[in-house]
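Internal tracking record. Fields below are filled automatically when a chain is submitted to the structure queue. Please do not edit lines marked as system-generated. If the sequence contains nonstandard residues, flag them in the REMARKS field before resubmitting.
Queue: standard
Priority: normal
Entity type: single polypeptide chain
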Amino acid sequence: MTDPRYLAAKLLDKTFRNDSYSNIQLSSGLEKSDLDIKGKKLCTAIYYGVIQRKITLDYIIKKYCSRPIKKMDSIVVTILRCGIYQLLFMENISDSTAVNESVALAKKFGKTSAGGMINAVLRNFIRDGKKFVCTGEKFEMISERFSVPIQLAKSLIDDYGEIKTESFLSHSLVDGFTYIRRNNLKCTDEQLRKSLDGIKLNTNDNICYWFSGGNIINTDAFKSGFFHVQDLSSQVCCMVLNPSEKDLVLDICSAPGGKTFTMAEMMNGSGEIHAFDLHEKRVKLIRDGAERLGLTNIKAETGDALKFNPELPKYTKILCDVPCSGFGVIRHKPEIKYKNLSDFESLPEIQYNIAENALKYLAVGGEMVYSTCTLRKAENDEVVKKILENHPETELIKMPEIFGKKIENPVTLFPDEILGSDGFFIAKFKKIY
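SYSTEM-GENERATED OUTPUT FOLLOWS
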């Protein structure tokens, strides 16, 4: 059977070298392996943990290793990161096991000569009580403590202040809940709970549920279309738009379709949703998901969100969930936080242009939600401000209460505000003439 630590290190090395998406990399690796459930859990914990804590782990390595990280073999660095992560953050793994397995990994990867150095670094860390003290100026200490690039830490603090930023970054390092949306067209609350017997489901409304841990994608309930997996913040986004059976809805950037599915279920399978995405491969994800869930009120087609299509009708509700930097979801996709902010400089213009194009499809009296899964005000508040300045025919309107809570318009959701949701931004417009 495959060694879970070996697979974790192999996938991590590939992820860091190829700058690939963690969820895709891990899913592919686990699917091809012969690991049992216990092995998959260990592999997953080490894999995501090392990505989440990479800067912190590297800070410790620099303290105990005389050779610069950039001059070390990448797989040796990965083995050290995995070893220190187990020592510092995995209480169920003994120190001796973490050290011995790390040394063994060096041999398995053909780096036997590095075994002595790996052993020395890890054992010296243990002798010092497995403690590390963040040093340097404020932003360096935040970077080392929360494993976030200094550039991103500064950007978030500029937007939200130090207390709010540190709270968000702290939440990004702990396991959150898994949220699912019950398909009211396929099952009742009782049927869902019975089909997922053994999993403790929590809910406020018998539609949105959350639980800790566990992979439920392979269950019969999922295959039968009883639910789809969707973070609470994305569900809130759909609740804010609040489509009804009488609406004609446009989801202009739909794939992979989670929000489309939620809206279709909110509409009780009636009305009609036109869901578009640029690539046929991604549109197929929407079609396949709609078929599994039995949602016949969704029409998914390819379409460019930046180009106006005069053949489309006017819509009473539009969801404009635009491409973004994704910093609100770094708990689930931690590799995103290591990207350079300069990679996202062109996004606000693209986001504005998509929103402006979407408004052309909105009927007078109709409502549109602009949303992102990032926290950067340049992609959120500034884009909304530009829309209002350039489109006097639109106005921000009152938000509905969500789980009994009044929310502002626009609103930036943080994990500590609504049941541990991802970071998210939502603004709701109405076309008044």
